[in-house]
Amino acid sequence: MGLYIVRRVLAAIPVVLGVMVLSFAMLHLTPGDPAVVVAGADAPPEAVEAIRRQLGLTRPLPVQFLSYLGQAVSGNFGHSLVSRKPVSEEIRRLLGPTLQLVVAALGFAVAAALGLGVASAVWRGTLLDRLATAAGVLGLSLPIFWVGLMLIWWLAFQWALFPISGWGGPIWTARGFHYTILPALTLGATLIGPLARMTRATLLEVLRQEYIRTARAKGLAEPRVVYVHALGNAALPLITVIGLQFGYLLGGAVVTETIFGWPGMGRTAVLAILSRDFPIVQGIVVTVAVGFVAVNLVVDLLYAVFDPRIRY
Amino acid sequence: MAPTPPNARRSRDEPGPVSMAGASRRLARKPLMLAMLVVLLGCAAATALAPHLAPYDPYRVDTARRLELPGREHWLGTDEFGRDVLSRLLHGGRVTLVVGLLATAIGLVVGVTVGVVAAYFRRLDNPIMRATDVFMAIPAVLLAIAVVAVLGPGLVQITVAVGVSSVPPFARLARSAVLSLREREFVEASRAAGASDLFIIRRDILPNVLPSVLVYASLHTARSLVSVSILSFLGLGVQPPVAEWGAMVSGARNYLRHAPLLATVPSMAIFVVVLCFNLLGDELRDVLDPRLRGVV
């Protein structure tokens, strides 16, 4: 197991290095002079020259790459071209809100999907099951921005229950929690469909197993059979689906943060592109990719935790 | 889940080349799939014929009639500049659908080529797959955003952006399909008969990879359409005043409080098309290749 973890972590390193190469190439693959691209086509020559010096573009390309790589490995992506602050400092500031949004959305989605999926599996073939299945398929295809806008219109404008947008602080404060609800609902809603579908399918599969019959035969209460014996064994496929969907979740976070004026990495990446703040875009792309790789790694490792039969 | 009939089990355990024959027979038994096809073709026809069908010029501004509700003159109302929403919806659909389909096509052609090359020429396998690992490590929307960051916002740029982010999944799918095919007897027979690599790929491999690729292409088109509309919604895709579904929602955002319908109309258009491609993919999988259940 320990060896397996080490091997998996080592295997992730080339991927992360590759992402760094890609993010370096991003700037240099641009048609034309990168400095002009960053400064804007109509920038005065002095500004272009200043940016060229600031980005170190006067040095030979391999030197630039090695210095970029060396800096990036230690988490240094240079300075924002707009705020002039170090990119690492900006990202540290953005990390908390994004994590809060993603974790809250994930929590909401898992809770809702478990409820829906268990109900569908237990009352299989009933109207409720069919409605839940249909809702899952429909929900999967709803544009996330519309879900967010309608939640704002309905719960923030019509009912004035929640703030329209903004960041209210960490989720454990009352204000922060209040501000997190609508964005988390928006982002989580996209995940409920696939998760509920998977819960239902695996639970039905598990409920046919013999150890479930044994559990029932020895007189355990049905809720205990479903929630402890069956659901515990259905956890593995669910974790897989969460891992697979995590990329879409991060993509959805970009939209959700933009709609709700959430001060996280997604919204900042969009703003940075519009203001041509390349170092920020690079830093965010690398940070998100590292996070994504880490989540997939954790998902793989959780396999061993949830299924003791798996040994590496 | 119903007990598996014995013949279904056999066909799953016995991976054979999947024939397209019989697909049309199974299609006739799939009313949902036919309905999806009809809706999609209807959408395609309506947007293709937009210049003839649209009741108004989608760019004609009429400031006296801003944000009107649906009525006799404007069936779906007017937007923040008094432009006819129905006309913009029809014209906008052309952009969304063409960009979404084109991006999937880029992903399909490049991805399948890369995947086949990786699986067939084993020496290239490792480097190619490690490269797709890197691309897959960046979430699709973020990868598309990074490409837009390089190329700048615009129609061609988002097509390329979404296309690039579509390559890795197609490459992986094609690679795994080819890996199992290339050891099969009919491929070996071709090789023994002296067929060239190119001939084997064209005649033996590609036709057998096609069903799973088509299934995935339908599911992936749904994702491409979502990515395209998201990029436009974020202001990174099509630039105003060009009509495009995601961009229309973006414009309607500022008038949400009093005109929620304005954001809803193009959103529902996206919803219908995405839903059709998702369901079509699910059904296609059953028709073309039942073994793919749970794989794609």
**Whole-number count of domains of chain B:** 1
Shape of chain A: globular
Taking the alpha carbons of the first and last residues of chain B, their distance comes to: 19 Å
Low-confidence stretches of chain B: 1-17
Q: What is the CA-CA span between the terminal residues of chain A?
A: 6 Å
- Quaternary: heterodimer
The most extensive interface between chains reads:
A-B, 53 and 44 residues
Overview of the molecule:
The complex is a heterodimer of chains A (312) and B (296). Chain A has 312 residues and is mainly alpha-helical. Chain A has helices at 2-28, 34-39, 45-54, 61-73, 87-122, 127-141, 144-158, 174-207, 210-217, 222-259, 265-274, 278-306. By secondary structure, chain B is mainly α. Chain B has a single domain (38-44, 75-292), classed as MetI-like (MetI-like fold). In chain B, 70% of the residues lie in helices and 0% in strands. Chain B is built from twelve helices and no strands. Chain B is elongated and about 75 Å long.
Question: What's the quick description here?
Answer:
By secondary structure, chain A is mostly helical.
Observed structural traits:
heterodimer; A: 312 residues; mainly alpha; B: 296 residues; MetI-like fold; 70% helix
Question: Which helices and strands, and how do they pair?
Answer:
The complex is a heterodimer of chains A (312) and B (296).
Chain A: H1 2-28, H2 34-39, H3 45-54, H4 61-73, H5 87-122, H6 127-141, H7 144-158, H8 174-207, H9 210-217, H10 222-259, H11 265-274, H12 278-306
Chain B: H1 6-13, H2 23-28, H3 31-48, H4 50-53, H5 85-120, H6 122-136, H7 140-151, H8 155-181, H9 185-192, H10 197-233, H11 245-252, H12 260-288
Helix pairs in contact in B: 3-5, 3-12, 5-6, 5-8, 5-10, 6-8, 7-8, 8-10, 9-10, 10-11, 10-12, 11-12
